[in-house]
Write a structure and sequence with these properties.
By secondary structure, this protein is of the alpha+beta class. It has four domains: about 180 residues, Sandwich (Immunoglobulin-like); about 100 residues, 2-Layer Sandwich (Zincin-like); about 210 residues, Neutral Protease Domain 2 (Neutral Protease, domain 2); about 80 residues, PDZ domain (Pdz3 Domain). It contains 16 helices and 28 strands. The chain has a seven-stranded mixed β-sheet with strand order 5-4-8-2-1-12-14. Strands 22, 23, 24, 25, 26 and 27 form a six-stranded antiparallel β-sheet that branches.
Length: about 600
């Protein structure tokens, strides 16, 4: 089977258009069909990437046009070539989404995922692919470079324009590409090169500190999965970040990750403190790097292989995203990037986020995983009352399992042993011909095999039930306590202020983004989308609701004026007690003293 050849050029940066040329040397004699993915792995929503194809034409080897027609939302059918020879498609893709999922292009930077740009000739999924990434024309682009984990073809320099190669289509679309000016640094984690690429306007980024911190985090994760060999699953890895004024997100790939962050979250030269923003950024990097093992190689059976033409359903995202969300922060403390107190603060924030929303009492993490396509990735104003996050609660499930296993085995076994078994059985050889995924009903038995512990009712309640996890009891042998912390309408420490039980949408107006089940606001008839304008005759804005409510005691009655669409409403509201928005998680050794400290140390240090 001859390779598929692609060429990509930022043809019209000001119009945000990539031009892609696809040449197939041996098209189907009956007429070649082409398709574009509808979703990108790691982001479980059908995004209809084909909607961004603006123009498309087909040509034979002599350069004459070939008839091509669209047969459905993502498929094109070319007419048979009577004279034989190669078939070429040339098409333009609109790229104006500053996110990690699709593609973006202007005169300062270009970025794309292959799922947004590369049409697949039907039946050629296993054909080798060669991509010629071409420099845009003009003096403004003279110093642009290319960042990607795609292997360079012979004659192409690293970070340079030229040809790159992939063994098949799945590999091709699993390597995002950044074009333009970017900061670049490299470090080695257990001997493997890791690149840090930061695009976007930044000032005085402390790349040396970033290298040192990421090196420790990466080496800690490598050692978790391969404690004896310390062998990374990649020959090279790229952290690819777009720094913006306001943004957050990441998407995992087999040898890289695409990230977006607030530029203010990046470390600054001469400021050694660990800011909350930088800690958040390191946690994001840690999360996506952990996916190099957990979901990119250890996969649910439903993803082995992916079908990018439709939804791929699995009830195991609580394992692949939730366990990753547990380990991302745990790897920060194990690597020494943050202190245990910082880690406990992060756990308390997660716990508060889960327990605050009543959706946890209605949807299990298995159901949340299965319904990700229609619920988690399509959240509306009622989401807190209807769904639970398989990320957040999944991380607490992992925490509960880890603590329970450690306590029952006196630390001879832990969740680490489960991850290593999953790696050895499903992940280590995934891209070497053994494409086997984890079955939907295998996990409990795998836990027992790896640890000798049957989690029994804890597993059933945590994964297939809606009871709150018994974290108080599970923390006790580790000398850790939980204490609820009241918050405000915006989730900040409310210092005992009464509550409406709402979440406010950012902005100048006081618009309700969500109204929690059973809350004072809901009982009074207020709804998401209502714009509050006055409390007892005093004007409400997007920033002063907490200040106004602080004048009252829980149980007080207040009159709230609000607009619903263009209709003015008056609600008589009985204020609730302060809402618990987070928990204070504290190391506080009981009468056991030293045993609790040792247990906690073994858990946090690995």
């Amino acid at each position: 089977m001859k390779p598929i050849r692609y060429a990509v050029v930022a043809k019209h940066p000001a119009a945000h258009l990539f031009e892609v040329t696809l040449t197939l040397a041996d098209p189907d004699p009956a007429g070649q069909r082409f398709t574009l993915p509808t979703w990108i792995p790691g982001s479980y929503l059908v995004r209809e990437f084909a909607r961004n194809i603006v123009t498309l034409s087909a040509f034979n080897e002599a350069g004459r046009k070939v008839r091509v027609e669209k047969t459905d939302k993502q498929t094109w059918q070319a007419a048979p070539l009577k004279e034989g020879g190669a078939l070429t498609l040339r098409y333009e893709v609109y790229a104006w989404d500053m996110s990690v999922r699709t593609a973006h292009l202007d005169d300062t930077v270009g970025f794309f995922n292959g799922t947004s740009l590369f049409l697949l000739p039907a039946g050629r999924e296993e054909a080798a692919c060669i991509v010629d990434i071409r420099k845009p024309e003009g003096a403004a682009y003279r110093d642009w470079r290319v960042a990607t984990a795609l292997p360079e073809a012979r004659g192409t320099k690293r970070y340079g324009f030229g040809e790159y190669r992939a063994q098949n289509y799945d590999e091709l679309v699993d390597h995002p590409v950044t074009l333009g000016h970017f900061a670049l640094a490299t470090f080695k984690a257990h001997g493997v090169p890791h690149d840090i690429v930061i695009a976007g306007r930044t000032v005085s980024v402390d790349m040396a500190r970033l290298q040192a911190d990421l090196k420790r985090i990466c080496e800690t994760q490598i050692a978790l999965f391969e404690p004896r060999t310390k062998k990374a699953p990649v020959d090279r890895y790229v952290f690819m970040t777009q720094a913006v004024s306001d943004g957050y997100g990441g998407l995992e790939h087999r040898a890289s990750t695409a990230l977006i962050c607030n530029r203010g979250d990046l470390p600054v030269v001469g400021r050694p403190e660990m800011s909350e923003g930088y800690r958040t950024y390191l946690g994001l990097c840690s999360h996506e790097y952990f996916h190099t093992w957990n979901v990119k190689r250890i996969k649910p059976a439903a993803f082995a292989p992916y079908d990018l033409s439709r939804e791929n359903y699995t009830s195991l995202l609580w394992l692949f995203e939730g366990f990753t969300s547990y380990y991302d922060d745990l790897m920060l403390v194990r690597s020494g990037a943050i202190e245990p107190a910082d880690y406990f603060s992060l756990v308390g924030k997660t716990l508060g986020g889960v327990l605050r929303a009543s959706g946890r009492l209605k949807q299990t993490v298995a159901e949340s995983s299965f319904d990700a396509w229609i619920k988690y990735y399509r959240q509306d104003e009622n989401a807190p009352n209807a769904i639970v996050s398989y990320y957040q609660k999944g991380s607490l499930v992992a925490l509960a399992f880890d603590l329970a296993i450690r306590a029952r085995t006196e630390h001879r076994k832990s969740l680490d042993d489960i991850m290593r078994l999953l790696w050895q059985r499903f992940g280590r050889h995934f891209y070497n011909g053994k494409m086997v995924g984890v079955g939907e009903d295998e996990v409990q038995a795998l836990i027992a095999e790896a640890t000798g512990v049957d989690l029994g009712p804890l597993f059933r309640d945590a994964v297939h039930g809606t009871r709150d996890l018994p974290l108080d009891a599970l923390f006790e042998p580790f000398g850790v306590t939980l204490e609820p912390q009241p918050g405000s309408a915006n989730g900040k420490n409310g210092n005992g202020k009464p509550s409406l039980g709402v979440r406010i949408r950012p902005g100048a107006d006081c618009t309700l983004a969500a109204v929690h089940d059973g809350s004072a606001a809901q009982k009074a008839g207020l709804s998401a989308g209502d714009v509050l304008i006055a409390v007892d005759g005093l004007r409400v804005t997007g920033s002063n609701l907490d200040t106004l409510l602080a004048r009252y005691m829980p149980g007080a009655m207040v009159d709230i004026h609000a607009f619903r669409r263009d209709e003015l409403r008056v609600a008589r509201v009985k204020l609730d007690a302060p809402e618990v928005t987070r928990y204070k998680v504290t190391a506080a050794d009981d009468k056991r003293g030293a045993p609790s400290r040792r247990a906690r140390e073994r858990w946090l240090r690995g």
